[in-house]
Write a structure and sequence with these properties.
Distance between the termini: 140 Å
CATH architecture of the largest domain: 2-Layer Sandwich
Structural class: alpha+beta
CATH class of the largest domain: Alpha Beta
Order of helices and strands: HHEHEHEEH
Helix content: 55-70%
Number of helices: 5
Low-confidence stretches: 126-132
Shape: rod-shaped
CATH superfamily of the largest domain: Ribosomal protein S6/Translation elongation factor EF1B
Strand content: 15-25%
Largest sheet: 4 strands, antiparallel
CATH topology of the largest domain: Alpha-Beta Plaits
Number of strands: 4
Length: about 240
């Protein structure tokens, strides 16, 4: 028996078209939702990247500021070091290493140093006779004011105490003579010289000297280099 379809063809075609259009609308809606989601995701990521960029920029600015402050501190430190070295050269015209080298250079054969100490003291001012008149009192007051204007550094005296050992007093006297002829020292004097035995067999003279560093000493680089090189040769000769 043949099947008879009583539904019109136009109705069937319309249903198919509606379904197709509905499917297209659904697909279009899905695509739009996906595009909107992607757009929102991109926007969120852009905002996150912008925030991270701002944070990195802020940290870089802080780091650059810190580096700048460190460089300024280093520059100030270098300036302070140069000032300190200049001040040290002004207060100590003769470096202690050069002074020690000079003391070593003048050692006679067989003489050795045991102890060396340097002490800076203010020079003693000579006492003045009491003034008996107003004029003399005024002159004394002016002189005192003039002396007070002298810088403290120029009034410092460097006293040197030297202890050593020598085979005999002849070497001690020779050492005193050499130091007296040195251009760095003044007022070289013997404090004591006494006999000292080593291992109950060898006899030496243990001596103590005192001296002062000259105030008007001005050494050049050539003088310092010559004294130090001579000291190295003296040490090798021992």
């Amino acid at each position: 028996m043949a099947n008879i379809n009583f539904v019109p063809d136009d109705y069937v075609q319309n249903n198919i078209s509606r379904r197709t259009n509905l499917m297209y609308l659904v697909l279009f809606a899905v695509v739009m939702i996906a595009l909107c989601g992607s757009f929102m995701t991109i926007k969120v990521r852009q905002r996150a990247c912008s925030l991270k960029e701002k944070l990195v920029t802020t940290k870089m600015a802080k780091i650059q500021k810190t580096i700048k402050q460190f460089e300024e501190l280093q520059a100030k430190r270098g300036a302070m070091m140069r000032t300190a070295l200049t001040t040290a050269e002004l207060l100590e015209p003769v470096p202690r290493s050069v002074l020690l080298a000079s003391l070593t250079n003048n050692l006679p054969q067989g003489v050795s140093l045991l102890k060396l100490s340097l002490v800076q003291k203010e020079s003693k001012q000579t006492s003045r006779v009491a003034s008996t008149s107003k004029y003399q009192a005024a002159q004394a007051k002016k002189a005192a004011a003039s002396e007070a204007a002298v810088s403290r550094e120029k009034l410092l005296e460097t006293h040197i105490d030297i202890e050593g050992m020598a085979p005999s007093d002849l070497q001690v006297a020779a050492y005193i003579e050499r130091l007296s002829n040195s251009s760095l020292l003044d007022n070289v004097a013997l404090v004591e010289s006494k006999e000292h035995k080593i291992e109950d067999s060898t006899t030496f003279r243990r001596f103590k000297l005192m001296a002062m560093l000259r105030k008007d000493v001005h050494l050049t680089r050539e003088d310092v280099k010559r004294i130090r090189s001579k000291a190295e040769n003296t040490i090798w000769n021992f």
